[in-house]
Design goal:
The chain is mainly beta. It contains 12 helices and 41 strands.
């Protein structure tokens, strides 16, 4: 047989890397284990049972088995396989029987427990911020149930670890000391218009805190959504309203329960009411009910009394009925793209702590804000330097610009009102994340207080990110280096939208925080089919006609990230640097020059500002200097690029009630003195709040922020003007933010990257 050059090269490579050349083309033989005939099982079924994927390379007649961070390469009849690039001798080789690959029953345990995969290592000492285990969540619930405070049908919006003292966490993490403090679980219960905050000491198994907050509205829970559907289905008035719109089968109606917000009573709804507004869609069978809105029909549902208290109706708009399937259009158009790491991962995971290059940080999942990054350090010249104590999505809001009855109240506080962590979407490898990703499960409590395991909640993967640097001198060797990034990805599905959050760690010290919006746009049913119709101008006043009878309503996605930065230490300052044009005072032909004017901001109110991308904003440690005597700093960049128009602020009038509730959305940088009780930019209980209990309140005392333990709140986002190319499903639109070292290092940090590698020990 004649082979082309590529085939010959591949065969040569396999011969060199797999010490099996004598067996490559030999005939199958009887397999023996420990001197006896082995029990053989089908490879594909056996690996599926172990949660592994199998792919055959017909070209090289080899099999690739992958599970998590482990990759096994095997050829028929060879007793040696490659596990993450390292040879392992197995007791019984893979053989072909009746045209199908078979292995011994022991094959899986031999390769998966070989110890050659160093991605996951045992924690020397548990990280103090490790989340509650399934056992601890169950213990918390059982303790509450046995206590004097217990009552029937307890509804939980969260059960999570009470965060330990910051200084003790840093001490344990940096100095590899065991953290011996008792673990405490905190919880939030919702009971009508009451919110109950409590705590359980997991060692003593006692309820140590039980505080009842009156007239406070908590999150929307899963059973609320079920209840709303049942209430709507049973309502005769709602059926009559549907019939007017040509909908006669209530079983085909899909309800969406939405938070109402607060408008100072202008909408006729008292703040005390525990209500949701419900809009509906028609399930036509095309798999995309979002494309069939039942317009101008809103039900106000009283959750306490389980009934519709108000039915709001407008003019009759026909339900758009044209099919808009999305699954059928999701066809793979590309040949496979495989990311191969034949020698294993460059990162390791011990417990919930990730080690990659110079970086070391902890990951967790919060039921409200989702992915949390903690105790992030950068190893520089053999020393772990603090960068960030804790970073996560603080909160977000999606306000719509249409004042009509079915739209004016739509200003969703996705994390604060719905709990984005509880709405985590499992990540599918090769689609939602590259095929080299390691997928991590997460444990949270569900609304009944029971532990819930979310499979594949977080993805971790490394990727090539272009040249780190390059220079070519004439007649000299090329000087260049590749840039690598480690990405930690989390996805949350909130109704029609899916949000992707990437924390991107660069080996040069940069941290990117990227937010992607995809899913299906919330659309409005209208009379116009095209822009030439008589009603088109009015129908599209607050949006874009993206299909016949369908308008994509203009809105914003505004994200706020809470960043407890510790730039080389706990005490930092906020510094403004503004490049300006000045008069040339040194003579010569130039009339002007460029200077950078610098000032340190002293108070919280001064620090709150809209971000100008032409300026530089730093979190600086004046107590530490690099070798040139410049204070070490990190630059804060809320606008580091994006694919949609940037939301410079909220597109609303100053007297809107939304502004009275949410200050955070209108300024991109806030800096506050750290307070462990100030966690959410919208406030802890934002649902139906009648004032700003978040950042607006946090800065009211105007604390001094010079050389203090500070938190940076970085607001970014997009103004979403719909377009046809986003319908019926929206390609992911990204907004990029960045934390960038600024004189943090003495020189280019990646020149000596090998000496800065972090280890798990």
């Amino acid at each position: 047989m004649q082979y082309n050059a590529l085939t010959t090269a591949l065969k040569k490579y396999l011969t060199l890397t797999l010490p099996l050349s004598a067996a490559l083309f030999s005939l199958p033989h009887h397999a023996f284990a420990h001197g006896e005939a082995a029990h053989m099982v089908p490879l594909y079924q056996n690996m599926t049972d172990f949660g592994a994927d199998v792919k055959k390379d017909e070209f090289t007649n080899s099999y690739t088995i992958s599970k998590g961070s482990l990759t096994v390469r095997a050829k028929p009849n060879s007793d040696t396989v490659l596990v993450n690039g390292k040879p392992l001798k197995v007791s019984v080789p893979l053989v072909i029987k009746d045209g199908q690959p078979v292995v011994s029953k022991e094959f899986a345990s031999e390769v998966f427990q070989s110890g050659l995969d160093q991605t996951f290592t045992v924690e020397a000492a548990p990280h103090p911020l490790n989340g509650l285990t399934t056992q601890e969540i169950s213990l918390t619930f059982d303790t509450i149930k046995k206590s004097k405070h217990a009552y029937e049908n307890m509804r939980f919006s969260e059960i999570k670890l009470k965060e330990p003292e910051k200084s003790k966490v840093w001490d344990a993490f940096l100095n590899h000391r065991a953290y011996n403090e008792d673990r405490v679980a905190i919880f939030t219960l919702l009971k009508g218009k009451q919110v109950i905050e409590g705590a359980v000491d997991l060692k003593t198994k006692k309820v140590t805190q039980w505080n009842v907050l009156e007239n406070t509205h908590g999150m929307v829970l899963y059973d609320d959504m079920v209840a709303v559907q049942e209430i709507i289905t049973a309502s005769e008035d709602y059926k009559k309203a549907l019939a007017k719109r040509g909908v006669h089968d209530i079983s085909k109606v899909v309800t969406t329960p939405l938070t109402v917000g607060y408008f100072g009573g202008k909408d006729g709804l008292d703040r005390e009411l525990n209500v949701l507004k419900v809009v509906s869609y028609l399930d036509t069978g095309d798999g995309n009910y979002w494309a069939h809105p039942i317009e101008n029909l809103v039900a106000v549902v009283d959750l306490d009394n389980k009934k519709i208290v108000k039915l709001e109706e407008g003019s009759i708009i026909p339900v758009p009925m044209q099919p808009n399937p999305i699954a059928a259009k999701n066809q793979k158009a590309f040949k496979p793209l495989e990311v191969v790491e034949p020698e294993g991962k460059n990162f390791s995971i011990s417990g919930q702590t990730i080690h990659w290059g110079p970086w070391c940080f902890h990951v967790g999942l919060d039921s409200r804000v989702g992915l949390q990054i903690s105790t992030a350090t950068y190893k520089d010249k053999g020393v772990k330097r603090k960068v960030m104590y804790e970073g996560n999505l603080g909160g977000m809001v999606v306000p719509y610009g249409d004042p009509d009855m079915g739209w004016y109240f739509k200003s969703y506080l996705d994390s604060g009102e719905y709990g984005m962590g509880t709405l985590t979407s499992s990540i599918e490898k090769g689609i939602d994340a590259p095929n080299n990703a390691v997928l991590l499960d997460a444990v949270i409590a569900d609304y009944t207080g029971q532990p819930r395991v979310i499979p594949n909640a977080i993805a971790v993967f490394e990727r090539y990110a272009g040249p780190e640097f390059k220079h070519q001198e004439m007649n000299q060797p090329n000087i260049s280096s590749e840039r690598r990034e480690l990405v930690v990805r989390w996805i949350s599905t909130v109704g029609n939208y899916d949000y992707i959050f990437d924390w991107v760690f660069n080996n040069n010290g940069i941290i990117g925080i990227n937010a992607g919006a995809t899913g299906i746009e919330a659309v409005k049913g209208v009379q116009a089919k095209t822009m030439h119709d008589a009603t088109a101008k009015e129908d599209t006043r607050y949006g874009t006609l993206i299909d016949h009878n369908i308008v994509g309503t203009t809105h914003q996605h505004i994200y706020n990230f809470r960043l407890d930065m510790d730039v080389d230490g706990d005490n930092n300052s906020f510094v403004e640097m503004d490049p300006v044009v000045v008069k040339n005072v040194r003579g010569g032909p130039r009339s002007s020059a460029m200077e950078v004017r610098e000032r340190t901001v002293n108070t919280e109110k001064e620090a709150a500002q809209r971000f100008d991308p032409s300026t530089i904003r730093l979190l600086s440690n004046s107590n530490k200097e690099n070798k040139m005597g410049n204070p070490v700093s990190y630059q804060v960049i809320p606008f580091a690029g994006g694919t949609h128009p940037i939301a410079k602020g909220a597109n609303f009038a100053a007297d809107e009630w939304l502004f009275k509730r949410l200050s955070f959305m209108d300024k991109q940088i806030w800096v506050t003195k750290r307070d462990e009780n100030e966690k959410f930019p919208e406030g802890k209980y934002s649902n139906r709040s009648d004032r700003d209990t978040g950042l607006g309140q946090f800065v009211a005392n105007n604390d001094n922020i010079n050389n203090k333990d500070l938190v940076v709140w970085m607001t970014t986002g997009t103004t979403h003007v719909a377009r046809a190319e986003e319908w019926p499903i929206m390609p992911t639109e990204w907004v990029y933010t960045m934390l960038k070292p600024w004189n943090f290092f003495d020189s280019t940090p990646t020149l000596n990257s090998d000496s800065n590698k972090e280890s798990s020990h």
